[in-house]
Amino acid sequence: MLNIHLCDNEKFIDVAFQKFETFYPNSNYFFIHGKKSFDSELSKKERYSVIDLRDKSNSRYIQKFIFSKLSGKKVNINIFIHYLDPKKANLVNSLTKEFEFKLYWIFYGSDLYTILYNKGLYELYDNDLGASLKQTLKKEKRKIYNFFSRYSGNKAIQKTISSLDFFCFWNELDFKLLQSNFDTDARFKFFRYGIIGQELFDEKYFFSEKEFLLVNHSGSKSGNHLRVLKKLRDLRIHKGKHRLYVPLSYGDQENINITHSFCLKNFQDVYTPLLEFCPKEDYYWFLSKVKVAFFGHRRQEGGGNINFLLSTGCKVYLRESSNLFEFYRNLGIKVFSFEKELSNEGDLEILDQSTQFINRERLLDFFSDKNLVQSYSELIE
């Protein structure tokens, strides 16, 4: 068995490598987009190669590498795309001319939603909605720009999706979104990296005292911060009763600046921004103290944070346009409609204990260690 992993230089890489090596030892090779000078330590690790995946010469390099591992033997080849983008699609499409392999897309979220947004098939931002002439023209302009400027990249991605064998994620509703917009014979496989491990199950977080309100998990523009914050402003949050936290340590800088200025103006006495990254353990402790969280995304995003919050007994408001709203409700987990169930300050009270326990039980059952082990052990066919 030969497993080729194509990915970007992300924080999950070490976890992914360890997990894959546990279940498929000595068969995983990670080709990470970047320059060796960018992360010299990473490039020195065994079976890690840091290369420019956009460089066609590196496509030939990977081809030669695979041929060297075959040595005339019949070996099952599996290629894993961690986050689908044009550079990885082009590389995979070039490999199809030389090899037979099973193709796996390990899904993130923005890889599909951004493609659909650029094509005018999915709206991510509240300020793009409506039937006004200005909004219609804006959408058409986006579609035209996407067609001409991203034509080759879109064609490469479409070709990759058409030859895809497996779509790997924990939310099958994202797979259904793919099927409704692309011609593919791919099959769905339940998969999660397992980056959030025992933290999800640790009862100390569940029994932590709940104190804070939280808006989104980052400064991502698709969080539609102002839609959420304007509604909270109208509820007249009182000092002493509530404390509002907004994570802005990463994301779209313009959106971060706009959000921060709005909060300083409208929530002076209760607002605390999170402008810097904090240690992992500190962040989990902070999340465990959140009593009510609001996510303004119109798409599946922030799932790791939302899962942890639900496991600790937090009351979570989601947009009904995000398929996470349907996903959790299908599991019997109580999440709340931002549009329909948030109307007064009483809706900011902590979730009742019985519902907290039910949510935690059903979430931990779905994301159990048993299911995680099974997903890895049954991933490769």
Can you describe what's shown?
- The protein has helices spanning 13-23, 40-44, 56-70, 86-95, 110-118, 133-149, 151-162, 172-181, 203-206, 225-234, 253-266, 280-288, 303-311, 323-330, 353-366, 369-377; strands at residues 2-8, 28-33, 48-51, 77-82, 102-106, 166-169, 187-190, 212-215, 244-247, 271-274, 290-294, 315-318, 336-337.
- The chain has 381 residues and is of the alpha/beta class.
- It folds into 2 domains: 2-195, Rossmann fold, CATH 3.40.50; 198-367, 3-Layer(aba) Sandwich (Rossmann fold).
- Strands 3-2-1-4-5-6-7 form a 7-stranded parallel beta sheet, sandwiched between helices.
- α8 (172-181) links the parallel β6 (166-169) and β7.
- α4 crosses α7 and α10 packs parallel to α11.
- It is globular and about 70 Å long.
- The termini are close together.
- The model is unreliable at 37-43 (pLDDT under 50).
Brief summary of the model shown:
It comes from Salinimicrobium flavum. With 381 residues, the chain is α/β, with parallel strands linked by helices. Helices cover 44% and strands 15% of the residues.
